[in-house]
Amino acid sequence: MLDCNGRSLDLSAPRVMGILNITPDSFSDGGRFFSLPAAIDQAARMVEEGAAILDVGGESTRPGAADVPVEQELERVVPVVEALASRFPVPISVDTSKPAVMEAAVAAGAGLINDVQALRAPGALELAASLKVPVCLMHMQGKPRTMQANPQYQDVVAEVRDFLLERAKACEAAGIRREAILLDPGFGFGKTLAHNCRLLDQLDQLTSLGYPVLVGMSRKSMIGAMLDRPTGERLYGSLAAAVIAVRAGAVLVRAHDVRPTVDAVTVAHAVSR
Ligand code: 8Y7
C-alpha cells in the first residue's frame, strides 16, 4: 500500500490511472475538459468507473508542444487538484516537471508526482523527496517539441532501463523509498513505432528491476500506426497493449477509457495469478 499524501494506492494488483487533461491543446481530448465543472464531472465518472488514481496535467507534452510558463501551469493545475482532492477519495497525481508546480500541487492535495522528465529539472529531485509523496520517473529522449524528429538508440530497451535505474538510484539516495518510485518507459516520447514495440515486447526487462512499473499507451500514435486509426478509434488497440503490459508485470496503466481498461487489466491479472 503506497501512501499518497494520506490516500492509499494499492498496487498488489494492477490499477488504472485515469487521465484528466486540462491543457487546451491536449493530446486527444481537444480541450473538452478544460473548465473546472467539466473537469470535476469527468473525474467523477472516472472514479465511478474504477480509477485508482487520477492524473492531472497542465503542461502539454504532446509531440511538438511548446513550453508552458510556470504561472500559467500553476493557474491551470492547482485549482483542479484542490477541487478533485476535496471531492474524491482517490489520490491525485500531478503531471509536471516544475518544482514550483509540484510543491503547490502537493499543498493542494496531490499525492503523486508524475514527471515525464524523471525529476531532472534543477531542484526537482530534492523537492520531490521532501514532499514525501511517491514519484513516477518516465523516460523521454529529447524534448516534446522535437522528440519525434529522429529518435535513435543503439539498444532502446537497455538504454531506457539504464536511464530509469540511474534516476531511481538518485531518488533512493535522496531518501525516497523503493516502493514509492514508479518507472515508466515513456511510450511515444522520443521513440519510433519499432522502439515502442520493442519496449512493450521486452517490458519484463523493466518490471524485473523490482520497482513498480507504470505504462501509458492509451490512444497513442503507436496504436494508431498499428491500426491506421484516428485517436477516437483506438480503444480496443489500447486495451490489447494494456493487457500485454500487465502480463509483463506492469501495475499501473494510464488510460482515458477507465472502465474498459479496468476490465482488461483485471482479466489479464486474474489469468497471471
Ligand atoms: C504519459 C504521461 C503522457 C506516459 C506517464 C498522452 C503525461 C501523452 N503520456 N505520463 N503523460 N506516462 N507517466 O498521450 O506514457 O497521454 S502525455
Provide structural commentary.
- There is one protein chain.
- The chain has 273 residues and is of the alpha/beta class.
- The protein has one domain (2-272): Dihydropteroate synthase-like (TIM Barrel, Alpha-Beta Barrel).
- The protein is 42% helix and 15% strand.
- The strands form 2 sheets. It has an 8-stranded parallel sheet with strand order 8-7-6-5-4-3-10-9.
- α2 (70-87) runs parallel beside α3 (99-107), α3 packs parallel to α4 and α9 packs parallel to α10 (258-272).
- The chain is globular and about 40 Å long.
- Mean pLDDT is 94; it is low at 25-33.
- It binds ligand 8Y7.
For the largest beta-sheet, the strand count, sense and barrel status come to: 8 strands, parallel
Structural class computed from helices and strand pairing: alpha/beta
Helicity level = 40-55%
CATH topology: TIM Barrel
Tally of discrete structural domains: 1
- What characteristic shape results from the CA principal axes? globular
